[in-house]
Every structure is written in structure tokens, then in C-alpha cells.
């Protein structure tokens, strides 16, 4: 016990006495995290409106209604314009997409509502291929506004009456419909017609009053969406810094782990390792003291890095503080066992350092420390679950901006401890004690 | 005190030590001589439980020396051939670390560390780091680290390599003091005059085996008359005997 204390003390004093190295170890992740954080979203902010151009070639009541409804939607930053200009705007990347409402859209759409087998009018959406995600969103929002506007006009407006007239005519001439169905459909048309007449009368008497229009019956989307950002609690918001500090913290603390491993190799070269082994201490104690001191150093570095993130960059532990501490400690254990693994597999300190830095950068990249793992392709997201860094970054993010509870800390902690156990086992197995 | 019986050790196919036996009694300095690669360091490593012999036994006071955490190792002090110090760690801190590894603690640890530093004449440099020391000072501190836990057996593997005559003399006086206190010392060296001055008995090794082992005076009798060159004081030196036994061919 006394020997363990002396060994750990020695490691800590030697590490922290090198003030310049320590300053660099702390400053590097903080500076780089500050850069990445500001590039990748910075502090919390409102989602931006999607810039979209719209071209109304129809000019009907229906198409005007659609444009008005889209203009009122907070999801869009709508730009009514001409078709050539709209396409040019998309090309320049100034708008994500441009919707072109064709001539005769109002009549055509109302007719298509009652008669599924006529040709439907087309709204062409020109889009920026680099913004394919925006296309799906714009299609969805178009569907909502077109359905509402067309539905309403079918039951009230002039185009609705015309559409009903022609539908009725077609029904009477059709031979494909049997007598009973024809009667039922005629009853439906009668009902719609009397509804249209009543609405027209109400509109006339209430001309100028705004509520008249809104009270007009019609089909509408049976739901609305309200954009609510999904973070742990209602007040917390995604913070680019919370991600970058997790990523860079993991990266640079692992670099410190490499130094632990290289330090052991250097010790071995200087004969110090042999000298220690001549003392009445077990191998487990010698390696164990390294794990303890490495874990303490890594924990302190992590604390320092996050202290800067919290003090200057608005990083907050929105989730479980206990979970955060547990994850940080598990990661620190991972770091020190990683260092031992390097010492066990490495030969010369110089060659080992280069290789270990490469391996660490790969691990860190795959772990989502540079760019968040959720933008990885599906298969890569699955594969990277086998990298310990992924668990570290995900865990730290879960406890910070995602604001998740202690429950979300169990899996990352367990995964990192499992990796640590494997690393330590391999290290003890492969460690060259004789040399 | 220290007893080694029939030690064997090979690295892969290469035999480093083949059947070495030796004894070091309390109050005695035994010299271990041999050309480069003779197997001296390997023998010392086996004596202190650092390397496990392929076969053979080492005992201290009758108790077998194990490896790892074996408590008998507390009775052995090792001065390794390479200087083994934490260069960035204060001299006194190095001593306290090694003391703690050998089971010392608290006030006893502090006292012993100070005493060891005093013995090698480095008290005024206690807080300084070995990286600021001269080669001779590092050697002395290297020896002090082996003494801090006051071992009964002291194994010194070329402790005076690169040391000036002044430091060497100081080291010798320290070792003679330890002998007078009843410690058992094994002294490995390439310098015959060191062995001649210091050692009561000498073991000469070559190619992993003991070529001769006897009192200094008895060893001189091994030399055939025609090889005796010194006529003034004595008709042979230990160096003559050494070269006679191990040849003049360069090693390693
Ligand atoms: N770890 C090792 N691996 C392989 N061979 C070794 C190892 N240690 C020693 N040897 C070999 O064992 C033989 C004895 O080496 P040892 O270091 O014991 O010699 P020595 O007498 O101490 O030499 P020197 O006077 O140069 O210190 C040498 O041939 C050496 O090459
Ligand atoms: Mg040697």
C-alpha cells in the first residue's frame, strides 16, 4: 500500500512538475475545441428559416392562397419570383429549392380532388442536390399548404363549383358506374353543392370581415407540426462547444495516455524498470500504480478542459452530474490502460509514439470526436460502436447538452470499463518483463 | 549469508550462465570478475530475484529468494550496472521512493533516506535533481538508493564505471564501512586494482561458468611461474591471473 502510494506520488509529481508540457496539454484541446465549436454551431440558437423561392404562374385564387399560406409559415423564408430567376437562385445556393406552380393549377387541383383518375397538375420543385434533406422538408410543407388551400376552395370557391359541375357531368355519362353508386355519388355532390351555396351567401353578407374566410369548410391536414428541439430538458439547447469539448478532451487525454506508454518504454530503456523490479513489489503493483496515476492525471486533465468549457464557452452539464463524473473516470481508466497496452505492444519509444498517435487519431475520428457520429452513414455508426472513443464522446455528450439522466451513463461506463479490462489483460499478457 | 547453487540461464538458444555457484558471507566483500558478456550481470540479476533462473536456487540467510513481491528481497540491495534514477525527481525523493518500495515508511523512511544521502556525501544536494548531477554524483546516488533500506546483502554491478579517483575512493570507504558492519557484499568490476584493494575473495567468470573462486592470495598461486611478471613487491598481480584464466581475446 505504501509502495503503491509512493509510486503514484512519483508519477503525479513528475507529470505535473513539467509545467510547460502541462500547459500545452491543456491549451491545445481548449483552443481546438473553441475553433471546432464555433464552426459547428457555437452556442445555442434558433433554427434558421429555410430559404425557398416560389413562382406562381397560375395567379388563381387557389395558387395565391398557397403562396400566402407558405409566406405565413415560419419554416420558410419565402421569395416569390420568376421561374428563370428562381432556378438561378437555386444554382447559386441562395435558396434551397424553388417551387413552380403551373398555369391552371387551381382548377386542375380542385378537379383532381373529386376525380382521382384525371391527370393531376404538377408543381415542379427545383432543388439543390447538395441540400437533399431540404427537399423532403419542402415537399412535406407544400403538401400541407396545397391540401388546405385546395380543399377549402373545393367546398367554397368558384373553381370548386366548376370542378363539381364537370364531375357531375362525367358521372352521368359514365357507363362504368352502377346505378346504386351513381345515386350515392349524386347525393354527395348535391350536399357539397348546397354547402358551396351556403358558404357563398355567408361570404357575401360578411364581406370584409376576416373571419368569413377562415370559417369556410374544407379538407385540411388533420394535424400540424410544431418544431420542438429535442434536448434533455426544455431549457437546454444544442451547443457546438459541448460537442467539440467532448471530442477534443477525449483526443488530447488519449495523447497523454500515449505518453504514459512511451514513458514506460523509456523507463525500460534506461534500466529503471528493471531496477524497480528488483524491489519486493509485484508486477501487478508496478503496472497497477501506472493505471492509478494515469487515471488520476487523465481525470484532472478532463476536469481542467471541461472547467474551461464551462467557464468560457457555455458548456453545461444539463444531465446527470454523477453520470458525467462516472463517464469521465471510466474514460480516464480507459486512457491509462490504453497507455499500458501501448507499452506492452511497442518496441522502441520513438516508433511506438508515431504509431500510437496514428492509431489514436483514427480511434478519435471514428469515435465522432471531430464530426459528430450521427452524421456518419448507418453502417459506420454501427461499426464505430466497437471503438471505445465512440462511447466516451457519446457519453460525455449525453451528460452535457443532451441532458440525459444517469441511466444513459451506464452503457458508456460499462463499455469503457470492458475495453479497459481487455486492454489491461492484453497488456499484462504481452508485457515484456524480461528485457 | 548469500548462497547461490548451480544457476543456469539461457536467452533463447544462447546460454548466458551455465551452472554458477557462489557464496558471500556476512562481513565479506566478494569480487565478481569476468570479461564482457561473461554472464556477471545475468548472475547478479538472478541473485536479487530480478531474473528467474532456469534451474538453481538462491537463498539469503537460508530463505529462498523468490520473484515479484517476495519479502526476502527486502534484505537485498542492488546497485545496477546502468544508472537507474528518476532524473527529474529530487535526489531525496528518489531515495524515499526506493525506500518505500522496500517497505519503509513514515519517519523511518525519512531518516534512512537522509542517512543514505549523507553516506555518499550528497546531503547538500538533497533537493536537486539528478539531471543536474555529474556522472560521479549520479553513481553515488545510484549506490545510496540500494542502501536506503539497510540491506544485509549488497550486490554492486560495476558501481564505479566512469567515476573519478576521488569519488571512487569515497565509495570504497563506504563499502569498507558496510563490511565492518557485517554486510555481505558482491562487487562486480573490470578493474583488477579495485578487486585487489577491496575484495576478500574473488570469483572469476567466463563464458557463463566460474573459472576460479578463491581468496586473492590463493588465486595468485594459480599462475604458472613463467607468466609471473611482477618482481618488486609481489611476483604477480591479479590482472595477470585474470588474463591467464580468460585469455587476451576481445569480447562482445
Ligand atoms: N535480455 C537478454 N536477452 C538476450 N541475451 C542476453 C540478455 N541479457 C544478457 N544476454 C546475453 O547473455 C550474456 C551475458 O550477459 P551479461 O550482461 O550477464 O554479461 P556481463 O558479464 O555482465 O557483461 P558486461 O561486463 O559487458 O556487463 C551475453 O552474451 C549477453 O549477450
Ligand atoms: Mg554486466
Descriptive account of the structure:
The complex is a heterodimer of chains A (435) and B (252). The longest helix of chain A has 31 residues. In chain A, helix 2 runs antiparallel to helix 10. Chain A folds into two domains: 227 residues, no CATH class; 156 residues, abc type-2 transporter like fold. In chain A, 67% of the residues lie in helices and 5% in strands. In chain A, strands 2-1-3-4 form a four-stranded mixed sheet, sandwiched between helices. In chain A, strand 1, helix 3 and strand 2 form a beta-alpha-beta unit. Chain A is mostly helical and 435 residues long. About 1% of the residues of chain A have low confidence. Chain B has 252 residues and is an alpha/beta fold. Chain B has one domain: Rossmann fold, CATH 3.40.50. Helix content of chain B is 33%, strand content 25%. In chain B, the strands form two sheets. In chain B, strands 6-7-8-3-9-10 form a six-stranded mixed sheet, with helices on both faces. Chain B has a four-stranded antiparallel sheet with strand order 2-1-4-5, with helices on one face. In chain B, helix 2 crosses helix 3, helix 2 runs parallel beside helix 4 and helix 3 crosses helix 4. The longest helix of chain B is centred in the last third of the chain and has 16 residues. Chain B is globular and about 55 Å long. Chain B starts with a strand and ends in a 6-residue tail after the last helix. Chains A and B meet through helix 1 and helix 11 of A and helix 2 of B. The structure holds adenosine-5'-triphosphate and magnesium ion. Magnesium ion binds next to helix 1 of chain B.
CATH architecture of chain B: 3-Layer(aba) Sandwich
* Tally of separate helices of chain B: 8
Count of distinct structural domains of chain A: 2
Outline the biggest β-sheet of chain A: 4 strands, mixed
Strand/helix succession of chain B: EEEHEEEHHHEHEHEEHH
Q: Tell me the major beta sheet of chain B.
A: 6 strands, mixed
Taken from the alpha-carbon principal axes, the silhouette of chain B is globular
How would you classify the helix and strand content of chain B by structural class? alpha/beta
Number of DSSP helices of chain A?
Answer: 17
Amino acid at each position: 500500500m505504501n509502495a503503491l502510494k509512493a509510486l503514484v506520488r512519483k508519477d503525479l509529481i513528475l507529470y505535473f512538475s513539467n509545467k510547460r508540457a502541462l500547459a500545452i496539454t491543456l491549451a491545445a484541446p481548449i483552443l481546438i475545441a473553441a475553433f471546432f465549436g464555433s464552426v459547428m454551431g457555437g452556442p445555442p440558437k434558433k433554427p434558421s428559416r429555410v430559404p425557398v423561392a416560389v413562382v406562381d404562374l397560375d395567379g388563381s385564387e387557389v395558387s395565391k392562397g398557397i403562396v400566402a399560406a407558405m409566406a405565413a409559415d415560419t419554416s420558410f423564408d419565402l421569395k416569390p419570383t420568376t421561374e428563370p430567376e428562381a432556378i438561378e437562385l437555386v444554382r447559386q445556393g441562395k435558396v434551397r429549392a424553388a417551387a413552380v406552380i403551373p398555369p391552371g393549377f387551381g382548377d386542375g387541383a380542385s378537379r383532381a380532388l373529386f376525380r382521382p383518375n384525371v391527370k393531376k397538375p404538377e408543381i415542379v420543385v427545383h432543388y439543390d442536390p447538395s441540400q437533399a434533406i431540404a427537399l423532403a422538408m419542402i415537399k412535406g410543407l407544400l403538401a400541407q399548404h396545397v391540401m388546405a388551400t385546395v380543399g377549402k376552395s373545393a367546398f367554397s370557391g368558384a373553381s370548386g363549383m366548376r370542378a363539381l359541375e364537370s364531375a357531375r357531368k362525367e358521372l352521368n355519362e359514365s357507363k362504368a358506374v352502377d346505378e346504386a353508386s351513381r345515386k350515392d355519388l349524386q347525393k354527395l355532390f348535391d350536399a357539397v353543392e348546397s354547402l358551396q351555396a351556403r358558404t357563398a351567401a355567408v361570404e357575401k353578407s360578411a364581406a370584409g370581415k376576416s373571419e368569413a374566410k377562415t370559417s369556410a369548410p374544407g379538407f385540411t391536414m388533420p394535424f400540424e407540426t410544431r418544431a420542438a428541439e429535442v434536448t434533455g430538458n426544455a431549457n437546454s439547447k444544442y451547443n457546438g462547444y459541448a460537442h467539440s469539448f467532448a471530442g477534443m478532451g477525449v483526443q488530447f487525454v488519449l495523447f497523454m495516455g500515449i505518453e504514459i506508454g512511451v514513458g514506460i518504454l523509456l523507463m525500460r530503456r534506461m534500466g529503471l524498470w528493471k531496477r524497480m523490479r528488483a524491489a519486493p513489489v509485484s508486477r501487478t503493483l508496478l503496472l497497477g500504480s501506472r493505471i492509478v496515476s494515469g487515471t488520476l492525471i487523465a481525470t484532472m486533465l478532463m476536469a481542467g478542459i471541461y472547467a474551461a468549457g464551462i467557464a468560457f464557452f457555455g458548456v453545461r452539464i444539463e444531465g446527470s452530474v454523477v453520470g458525467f463524473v462516472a463517464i469521465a473516470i471510466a474514460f480516464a481508466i480507459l486512457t491509462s490502460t490504453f497507455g499500458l497496452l501501448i507499452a506492452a505492444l511497442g518496441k522502441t519509444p520513438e516508433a511506438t509514439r508515431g504509431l500510437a498517435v496514428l492509431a489514436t487519431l483514427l480511434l478519435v475520428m471514428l469515435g465522432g470526436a471531430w464530426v459528430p457520429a450521427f452524421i456518419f452513414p448507418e453502417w459506420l455508426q454501427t461499426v464505430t460502436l466497437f471503438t471505445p472513443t465512440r462511447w466516451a464522446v457519446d457519453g460525455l455528450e449525453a451528460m452535457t447538452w443532451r441532458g440525459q439522466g444517469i441511466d444513459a451513463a451506464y452503457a458508456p461506463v460499462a463499455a469503457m470499463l470492458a475495453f479497459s479490462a481487455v486492454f489491461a489483460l492484453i497488456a499484462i499478457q504481452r508485457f515484456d518483463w524480461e528485457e | 549469508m548469500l548462497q547461490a547453487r548451480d544457476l543456469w540461464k539461457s536467452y533463447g538458444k544462447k546460454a548466458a550462465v551455465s551452472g554458477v555457484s557462489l557464496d558471500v558471507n556476512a562481513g565479506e566483500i566478494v569480487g565478481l570478475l569476468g570479461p564482457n558478456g561473461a554472464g556477471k550481470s545475468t548472475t547478479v540479476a538472478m541473485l536479487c530475484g530480478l531474473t528467474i533462473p532456469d534451474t538453481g536456487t538462491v537463498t539469503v540467510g537460508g530463505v529462498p529468494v523468490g520473484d515479484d513481491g517476495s519479502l526476502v528481497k527486502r534484505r537485498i540491495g542492488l546497485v545496477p550496472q546502468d544508472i537507474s534514477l528518476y532524473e527529474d525527481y529530487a535526489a531525496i525523493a528518489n531515495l524515499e521512493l526506493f525506500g518505500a518500495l522496500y517497505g519503509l515508511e513514515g519517519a523511518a523512511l525519512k531518516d534512512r533516506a537522509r542517512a543514505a544521502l549523507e553516506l555518499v556525501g550528497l546531503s547538500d544536494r538533497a533537493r536537486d535533481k539528478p539531471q543536474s548531477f555529474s556522472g560521479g554524483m549520479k553513481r553515488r546516488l545510484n549506490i545510496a538508493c540500494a542502501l536506503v533500506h539497510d540491506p544485509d546483502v549488497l550486490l554492486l554491478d560495476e558501481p564505479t564505471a566512469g567515476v573519478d579517483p576521488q569519488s571512487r575512493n569515497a565509495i570504497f570507504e563506504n563499502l569498507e564501512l558496510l563490511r565492518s558492519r557485517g554486510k555481505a557484499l558482491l562487487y562486480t568490476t573490470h578493474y583488477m586494482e579495485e578487486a585487489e584493494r577491496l575484495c576478500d575473495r574473488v570469483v572469476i567468470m567466463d563464458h557463463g561458468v566460474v573459472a576460479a573462486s578463491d581468496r586473492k592470495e590463493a588465486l595468485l598461486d594459480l599462475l604458472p611461474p613463467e607468466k609471473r611478471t611482477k618482481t618488486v613487491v609481489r611476483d604477480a598481480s591479479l590482472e595477470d591471473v585474470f588474463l591467464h584464466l580468460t585469455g587476451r581475446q576481445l569480447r562482445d
